[in-house]
Every structure is written in C-alpha cells, then in structure tokens.
Specification:
By secondary structure, this protein is mainly alpha-helical. Helices cover 69% and strands 0% of the residues.
C-alpha cells in the first residue's frame, strides 16, 4: 500500500468514527491520538507508533483498524534491515507486556529460543515477576540455561520480585547444573544465601526445590546445617525430604535430626526411619519387608526414605515394586531405581510396551540415560507411533545423523509422530522448507511450529515472509516470527522499538 493511500484510509477511519473528537468514545479518542504519532518523526519512531496503535487495536478487538497499521508498518520497513531488527525487538518487548497471558507466554518462549543473546536475556530477566506462573517458569528456565552466573542472578531476582514459580524453577535449574557437573566447586557457595531464604520464608514448593539443590551439592558444611534446619520444619514432606538429602552424606546425623522432631511414632514413621539408616550401612532385612508390606502407608514411607545411595542395597525388593498394580508406587520405585539402583537395559526395554504411558516414558528415559540407544532400538519404536514416547524418541533421532533425519522426515506423514518430528527438526537446516510452508497453514499450532522452526533455520531470503508473519492479524505467530527475523539477520543488537 502506498503511504498516500494509507494516510487517506486513516482519515476515512477517523472520520467515520464520529463528527468530532469530543463525541468519540474514549478508546477511539485514544486511537486517533495514537495515530497522530505515526505521521512524523524518524522511521524508528514512526514504527514504534504503529506498533502501539496495533497493540491498542488488538486489545480492543478492532482487527480492521489494526490491518491498516500492519500494512503501513510493512511498507515503512521495506528492506531496511536495521529498522526491521529494531521493530522485531520492539515486538518482543511489547509482547511481554501484553494484557493476554497467553501472548506473554508465547513471547517468553520466543525469547527463550534466542538465548543466550544478551538482549533476550535482559528481556527475560525483566519478565521474571510476571503474574502468570507459566511465564515465570519459561523465563527462569531459559536464564538458567545461560550459565551459573545467570542462575545466581535469577535466584536473586525471583526472590526480590516475589515470583515463587520463577524461584522454584531457578532452584531446580541450579540443581540440574550442579548434577551435570557444569559448576565449578568454588562457585557453589554463592547459591546458599538464596537457598537459606527459600527455606526460611518460601512456600512449600519453593522449599522442596531448595532441598533438591541442597541434595545436589557436595557435603559443604553450611549446606549440611541448612539440611538440618530443613528437617526441623513443620511440614512433614519438607522435613522428610531434608532428612533423606542429609542421610546421603551422614545417615546417623539425619536420623537424629529427624527423630528429634517426632512427637509420636507409627508403623509408617518407623519404616521411614529404617530406610534412612540404610544409607549409612544400617540393616536392610526389615526395610525389604517394609517395601513388600500390604500397608500402603508403610510401603510409601519406606520408598520416601530410600531416595538416596542406600537404595542400591535393597535393589531386588525395589525392582519388584516396578510390577506393582499401583501406578504411584510403580513410578516412585522406577524413579528411585533410575538414579540409585539401575535396572538392566533388557529390563528397561521390556517396560517400553507397558500398558501405562508414564511407565513407558520413564523406562525409555532411564534406558537412554544409561547408554546411547542407537537407530536399531529407536526405529521400531518410532514406526510403532506411540504418542507418549514419540517426543522423546524424536529428540534422540535428531542426533542420529542422516538416517535419524530420514526417519524424522518419514514421521512427518503420521499423525502420532508429525508434531514431535517437527519439533525435533527445529534446529536442522534441512527442514527449513517445511517450516516455510507451515507459516501459511490454516491451523494455529502448525503455524507456530513453522515459525519456531525458522527461529533456528531461517536465512536472509526468509525475511519477507517472516515480516509478513510478524505483522499478521493472526497474532499467534508474530513474536516467533520476530525471533526468527533476529536470527536471520544475525545481528540482534539494535535498540528496541517499543
């Protein structure tokens, strides 16, 4: 559209709204005022003004009005990559402040795909205090993947902003970093102040996440003191989790701390105490009896106490519970075995056909952690089309070279595997043409998959369709297209247009 035509349309829209500004409804007066800013200033200032008009129109449900500014914005940007980059960052910044939580979540997910770009990390950190828990979690997880210094900053920022979901995600992210051996031992102490605050005044889920991090740390003196303080807490789950984590380092100290908090006894509490002692070399015979008990409370208490290195000493009894008819018992036993008393590959693979989807997924992940599975194991599973296993299988196929890529391509034609295959292909340049085609799909989820795939595969000749996606009335892909624009330009350092 020519700018002269656009200006004429603006006059028509403003004129049709009413005979005088004083008689316009308040939102319409705001629209007229916002549009005035699109006629003057630098291209960046005019682009920012158009974005503000578009956001106002979308918030009010005026799609026809927004279409005018989308067209004008496309013409204004033209082939100016610097302006395009600036508008893309602006779209992401504005998306994080949108009233719609689903839109903010999509924006956070798009920015997470750009991590560890410094500007993306700054925007994600600024959104840690979002009122929606899912947005907090996406931001915290992306920041934690950027390295230990960002983990520490996320712990501090989420605490300061009273963002419990982000705080919990950061604590769990820190635990994963520590367990993966990605943190220098000299830097571990820096996380303890945040852990202490979480235990002192965090909600239960945050305190449990803090214990997860403490359990991942080596036997630092201050960490052991914090675990003892956790044992003394009133919440039974927090107290028992702390006791188990402490028992991994000093079983007698854990047992003494836990017993000092118990005002009464019961068969279940006694079973938990016996399980704790196993980590320090205590007797196992009665613990094996507890694991086979007909009393579900005794059985669950023994399982809770065995979440540590001592579980290997009662491996046979623990493995027997993987055949339990109780899904909760089965998954708990499988989870403990996965970390502390591994099943053999043959035993795990036998569970890949278990009737329960959760059991199949847990067994597959446990087998993949033990050793690379290889095409020979992955191909028949993939071709069977199990929707529960498909996402995990697809992720492994993406690392298997040309044959893995071939199997993923074949999976695109099957309903049970098409979406997992697309997600797994998201970082493979060979899939770029498929992602391009999906930008015009009638299904919103397919369009989002296409835009997300282009975040990692787009080239400069994708800029025009990405610009169209970024300025589309179907606002389900605009922020993902903005992220893909920044990747395609490969210079995401311009100041934001907001």
């Amino acid at each position: 559209m020519r700018l002269e035509s656009y200006a004429f349309l603006v006059l028509i829209v403003a004129g049709c709204a009413g005979p005088g500004d004083g008689r316009l409804p308040s939102p319409k007066r705001g629209l007229v005022k916002a549009r005035e800013a699109t006629h003057s200033g630098t291209p960046q200032e005019r682009a920012a003004a158009h974005r503000r008009v578009i956001e106002l129109c979308l918030d009010e449900g005026w799609s026809d009005e927004a279409a005018i500014d989308y067209l004008a914005l496309r013409e204004l940007i033209g082939e100016d990559e610097i302006l395009l980059e600036s508008v893309a960052w602006g779209a992401l910044g504005i998306g994080l402040r949108a009233p719609d939580p689903a839109r903010r979540l999509r924006t956070a997910q798009a920015l997470a795909e750009l991590s560890p770009d410094p500007h993306a990390l700054d925007l994600l950190e600024g959104a840690l205090g979002d009122p929606h828990p899912e947005v907090q979690v996406v931001c915290a997880q992306a920041l934690c993947r950027a390295g230990w210094s960002h983990v520490l900053r996320t712990l501090e920022a989420s605490d300061e902003r009273s963002a419990p979901a982000a705080r919990r995600a950061a604590l769990l992210g820190a635990a994963r970093e520590v367990r993966a051996g990605l943190v220098d031992s000299a830097a571990l102490d820096a996380a303890l102040p945040s852990v202490r605050r979480a235990l002192e005044r965090g909600p239960d889920r945050v305190r449990l996440a803090a214990l997860e991090l403490l359990g991942a740390l080596p036997a630092l003196p201050e960490a052991l003191v914090l675990l003892e303080q956790g044992v003394a807490q009133a919440d039974p789950e927090v107290s028992q989790r702390a006791a188990v984590a402490l028992a991994a380092h000093d079983a007698e100290r854990a047992l003494a701390a836990w017993r000092s908090t118990q005002l009464s006894r019961s068969p279940a509490l006694d079973a938990f105490a016996r399980a704790l002692r196993v980590h320090g070399g205590g007797p196992t015979a009665q613990v094996e009896v507890d694991l086979g008990s007909d009393d579900p409370q005794v059985q669950r208490a023994a399982l809770r106490g065995l979440q540590g290195p001592g579980a290997a000493r009662v491996a046979a009894s623990l493995h027997a519970l993987i055949e339990s008819p109780s899904r909760g018992t089965r998954l708990q036993a499988l989870g403990i075995s996965r970390r502390w008393a591994p099943l053999s590959q043959a035993e795990l693979r036998a569970l890949w056909t278990h009737p329960d989807a959760g059991t199949r997924v847990a067994a597959f992940r446990a087998a993949a952690e033990q050793q690379p599975l290889g095409i020979e194991a992955l191909q028949p599973l993939w071709e069977a089309g199990d929707p529960a296993l498909a996402p995990a299988i697809a992720a492994h196929l993406a690392t298997e070279g040309p044959l893995g890529l071939e199997l993923l391509e074949a999976g695109l034609g099957r309903p049970a595997t098409s979406r997992p295959a697309l997600r797994a292909l998201g970082r493979r340049p060979e899939a770029r043409a498929r992602f391009q085609a999906l930008l015009d799909a009638p299904d919103a989820e397919a369009r989002r998959l296409g835009a997300a795939g282009l975040v990692h595969t787009a080239a400069r000749d994708d800029l025009l369709p990405l610009l169209e996606g970024m300025t589309s009335l179907r606002a389900d892909t605009d922020v993902l297209c903005a992220a893909a624009v920044l990747s395609a330009i490969q210079a995401p350092t311009s100041p934001s247009v907001e």
